[in-house]
Specification:
two-stranded antiparallel sheet, 27% strand, mainly beta
């Protein structure tokens, strides 16, 4: 990806349709992905659907993952960007 240190980035499309993204973000990496990378899955989801998006945040203290979870669709149909 332009302007990103993605030498350790791996993207895997799993047999069940989910996608696994692994890599290491460091101080030199851009830590955001454009919403356009995920918009098709978000728009197609119905309330309560599990999306093919999962997050797992690793820290030095909890190397297996400190914060993790599956992202699910909610009834909110908007994003606020004014705060």
């Amino acid at each position: 990806m332009p302007n990103q240190d993605d030498d350790n980035l791996e993207i895997t499309i799993n047999d069940n349709g989910s996608t696994t993204i692994t890599g290491v973000w460091d101080a030199n990496d851009n830590s955001s992905q454009p919403l356009s990378n995920f918009i098709d899955a978000l728009k197609a989801a119905e309330f309560g659907d599990e999306l093919p998006l999962y997050f797992n945040i690793h820290t030095n203290e909890f190397r297996g993952g400190e914060i993790r979870g599956q992202i699910a669709s909610t009834p909110f149909l908007y994003l606020r960007t004014d705060r």
